[in-house]
Amino acid sequence: MNIMLFHSAYGLRPAVRAAADRLREAGHEVWTPDLFEGRVFDTVEDGRDFKDEIGKDELLRRAVLAAAPYSERGLVYAGFSFGAALAQTLALGDEKARGLLLLHGTSDIAANASVDELPVQLHIAEPDPFEPDDWLSAWYLQMRKAGADVEIYRYAGAGHIYTDPGLPDYDAEAAEATWRTALGFLDSL
């Protein structure tokens, strides 16, 4: 699979590169665009402030430009938290998208979004302060209405970005379960 993997609001951290390497070792081609142009943050608040300073439209433009040279190949869009939101937006707008792998985040869905059984897998903490249960229920229904084939995996007791060993939310057991399931998902596409 060809995978476009977007980083979180923390920036292109070593954990994102390690995730890309893990995917490559499994036989996938992976791109990890740096939407923050080298900036990396130690706190989610600092990353969110920087993200807001750049602006949603500019970050979406950067994501589109990063994916454009590879979209003809049929990409699987993937991302961490904020990067998952970008991946979702791009996947729902790319008729050649092969799949969507969301780690720790989702995004709004346009009312007119329509996909043809796009395979979607979401991995998320339970509970997650950024993805409350009522939001996830509505998100799931909207994704199904748009035509996506959605699987959701919840990890009780894990923190928001539990796959990054350099962050306080890290949960080794949940992270390993996530990668095992996600690699199976990618192999099925």
Automatic annotation (TrEMBL):
<keyword id="KW-0378">Hydrolase</keyword>
<dbReference type="InterPro" id="IPR002925">
    <property type="entry name" value="Dienelactn_hydro"/>
</dbReference>
<dbReference type="InterPro" id="IPR029058">
    <property type="entry name" value="AB_hydrolase_fold"/>
</dbReference>
<dbReference type="Pfam" id="PF01738">
    <property type="entry name" value="DLH"/>
</dbReference>
<protein>
    <submittedName>
        <fullName>Dienelactone hydrolase family protein</fullName>
    </submittedName>
</protein>
<dbReference type="InterPro" id="IPR051049">
    <property type="entry name" value="Dienelactone_hydrolase-like"/>
</dbReference>
<feature type="domain" description="Dienelactone hydrolase">
    <location>
        <begin position="3"/>
        <end position="187"/>
    </location>
</feature>
<dbReference type="GO" id="GO:0016787">
    <property type="term" value="F:hydrolase activity"/>
</dbReference>
